[in-house]
Amino acid sequence: MAPILGIYASQISGHLFAPSGAYDSIATATVGAGGSSSIDFNSIPSTYTHLQIRYLIRSGGTNNDFSFGINGSFSIANSSAHILKGDGSSVTGSALSSQNFISFANTISASLPSGQLQTGIIDILDYANTNKTKTVRHLFGSDQNGSGYVILGSGMLNTTSAITAVNLFNGYNWAQYSSFALYGIKGN
Predict the structure, then answer these.
(1) Domain count across the chain
(2) What is the 3-state secondary structure (H, E, C) of 144-170?
(3) Looking at residue 8, what is its pLDDT?
């Protein structure tokens, strides 16, 4: 019986009567040869409650920061981020305040084994609500043959503007084969 329910649920995703909390694929991006410094998702519809970005990444240089902007801007004064990182033997935490964008600093490993990608999920809560500042949650991890780590992050974009575009930036390049998928979440 479960396979039938799974097929049924996948057929109604995006339908007017989809269950609360359903995910709809909005857009995807895969980095080609030569890399790309920015991944931009534009013209995001305002018909969802939250957004989620799932990704597999590799930095094309030595910059290990993952920066997050909205609506084509990395200039949103007084934004902030918090990061908690654990690697199996130690835990570190950091906070960034009075930023112009959310930067999850020191989150991308510049020394991954050849061909390996890191993975993560970003949740953007109440992205279309113009009565709230924007909250972002970030879960990120990397298994580097026994020396990996997990990062939990959160951030606040100090704006009540509806988010219509998301901009993901790495100071060098996202390496070839890095991929990003944007989903809309219905319901609460």
Answers:
(1) 1
(2) CCCCCEEEEEEEEECCCCCCCCEEEEE
(3) 39
